[in-house]
Design goal:
- The chain is mainly beta.
- It has two helices and ten strands, in the order βααβββββββββ.
- Strands 4-3-2-1-10-9-8-7-6-5 form a ten-stranded antiparallel β-sheet.
- The radius of gyration is 15 Å and the shape is globular.
Length: 142
């Protein structure tokens, strides 16, 4: 029997965010830039397109737009939340959760990772980790 891939596709709006500023602080982002980032990222527009195991995620705020495309099970290059280039390896942790370890070539800064999970009630939960700080952002489909 073929495994059904969870479909993350859609336009998402953020419902809640916990510890985003703490995450930026753990990454060494200065207080001035943290304040700007927290305000700008208060209501990001997230659009995800997916075809089978390949995802494209566009996140837009009032300050910048980021775009990342990847295939689950294949490493790819992206940047950490604080702008460091890294290699990421996404994998299915469960049928509805993708986890991704990030490795920074120079090894600078804390270890970073993210997960994206679709809940049974249709919410998208994004966690971002820097060292022992975990930021959780919950989204709902528009």
């Amino acid at each position: 029997m073929e495994k059904k891939t969870t479909d993350f596709s859609g336009k998402w709006k953020m419902k809640s965010s916990e510890r985003f500023e703490d995450l930026l602080k753990a990454l060494g982002v200065n207080v001035f830039l943290r304040k700007i980032a927290v305000r700008a990222a208060a209501s990001p527009a997230v659009e995800i397109t997916q075809q089978d195991e390949s995802l494209s995620i566009k996140t837009s705020t009032s300050v910048r737009t980021t775009h990342v495309s990847f295939t689950v099970g294949q490493s790819f290059n992206e940047t950490t939340v604080d702008g460091r280039p890294c290699t990421s390896f996404p994998k299915w942790e469960t049928d509805s959760k993708i986890s991704c370890e990030q490795s920074v070539p120079k090894g600078d800064g804390p270890k970073t990772a993210w997960t994206r999970e679709l809940t049974n009630d249709g919410e998208l939960i994004l966690t971002m980790t820097a060292g022992d700080v975990v930021c959780t952002r919950v989204y709902e489909r528009e």
